[in-house]
Amino acid sequence: MKGWLVDGSLASRQEFVAAQKLADGVRCFRRRPHWFAGRFDDQTVVKLRATSDLRFHPDVQLQPCTTPRRLQPKLSRKWFRSFCNTNQLVSPGLNEVVEQIGAPQAWSRATGSDTYIAIVDSGINGLNLEFPAWKKAGGWSYDNSFPWNDSTGHGTMCAVIAAGCPRNPLAKLCGVAPDALLYSCKTDYQSSTIIDAYDWIQDQHDQHGRPIIVSNSFGFETTTPPEEDGEPVTPDHPFVVVLRELVARKLPVVFAAGNNHPENKPRSRKPDRIWAWNSLPEVFTVAEVDRKERVRPYSSRGPGQWASASHPKPDCAAPAFGWVLIQDQYSKVIEGWGTSGAAPQAAGLLAMLKEQRPDFEPAVLYQRIRDKARKVPQPWNCVGSGILDCWHAVY
To answer: How many CB atoms lie within 10 A of CB 143?
Structure first.
């Protein structure tokens, strides 16, 4: 049986309820009474499509935008403290990345204070010293488990890049927006559970009205236009509807470009492999470069499957290399963090901009970042407008 997102907004209540009874593993959406997710056999879907006004979309399984990584020996917090004195930073790695994009200079103007960054990912390991109690603003989990646990370490990596805080003398890594608060939205990367996470984020915005930046380091891991069980993913997918609702609330949304470019063709510009919602004009899409600001061979090229002619993808690029926090260990990554590590940098910069201009539309802030990006001699469809430049982007 296949997973489907069912949109019953054009169907009768009777058709909608009958379809729910035929489905297995039904997931309802409290903010969306006309939608549900469930599993159906092929024959049932064919019949319902022919005899009702229900619309069926694949409940797609997304993947974190990481690459196979070669790691140096990992250092736990305990052994790391014995390895380094309290004034020493992990080098080279995240701290150098943050310096390379000009974040420390920008902190005299903005640090992300009074903003939230929602890390929609595998959870966050909240025991790390880079996430003090005041930073952990709340969380949501797809399976009702504790959202500040992380089974893979991927969400933890994204969180420390976006907003890790080094105020504890034993914390070694600093993110782009050290004073931003964090929401941990723990998913299994299924589109239906991510929609639930986005709805939870909207609930939080309803309660406090302050800026929330939504950071997404996942997408389609494929070299061909994305499908789920043979069904193409189309721009009218419910996932797109919810993303556009977030942006309409003035909540900036960031996506990783993806790691779908064939590494054996590093100079190739085609075919286009920034897929689906990662390429929407309403979101900010980030590619990855190395320490010397050369595009990573695997970083997906633009202009993007659903990008408009006026907003080709990626928007910008960010460096990612060396030491970073994965789960509860400092790990030196030899071959890059994947575009997963680029997207949270833009989320941190957007938090700083939202601190300064909380009422600005996301599109205005996206354009500000593009206009102030540092130009590099790389093709536009590899790095967009250039490398993130926090110092020049902040107001």
So the answer is: 8
Structure tokens that stand for 81 in this block: 């403290």
Query: Contact, 228 vs 4, CB < 8 A?
Result: no
Q: Distance between terminal CA atoms of the chain? A: 52
Structure tokens at 330: 């400092």
Nearest to residue 112, comparing CAs of 182, 59, 38, 31?
A: 182
Average pLDDT value for residue range 337-359: 97
Predicted pLDDT of residue 68: 60
Cβ pair 334, 93 in contact under 8 A = no
- CATH fit for domain 65-393, picks 3.40.250.10, 3.40.50.1820, 3.40.50.200, 3.40.50.620: 3.40.50.200
Total residue count of the chain as it appears in this document: 395
Domain limits of the chain? Answer: 2-58, 65-393
**Residue whose structure tokens are 């994305």:** 226
Distance CA 47, CA 60 (A): 21
What is the average pLDDT across 195-222?
A: 97
User: Are the beta carbons of 90 and 75 closer than 8 angstroms?
Assistant: no
CB neighbours of residue 108 within 10 Å: 9
| H or E element in which residue 64 lies | strand 63-64
Of all residues in the chain, what percent carry a pLDDT higher than 70?
92
Cis ω for the linkage preceding 303 (within 30 of 0): yes
* pLDDT tens sequence across 14-48: 999 999 999 999 999 999 999 999 999 999 999 99
- DSSP structural state of residue 261: S
